[in-house]
Amino acid sequence: MPHAPVWPLSIGDYMQDTVTLSAEEHCAYLLLMMAQWSNGGEPVPNDPCVLARICRMPRRRWTQKVSRSVLRFFCETESGIAHPRIAEDFRRVARKI
What we know:
With 97 residues, the chain is mainly alpha-helical. The chain has helices spanning 11-17, 23-38, 48-54, 59-71, 84-96, and strands at residues 75-77, 80-82.
């Protein structure tokens, strides 16, 4: 599959789950979910340098200010971090293609 299919973001669920996030944390959370979606629903590396780069912020900012709020939405796996809903939605959408 050359390009990831369209991502069916559920705005209501997203807003309900993220009401306490700052704008910076929202951006980081969305960028990490998009990275996983673009990776075929597979986990992204659980490396602070990589995660900070995906979130377009300095590693120190990611580590000290943002990661704790954002990573609570993700699960650790052997190959990185994954958002369970992203993996599930990707599989569902990919089956329809």
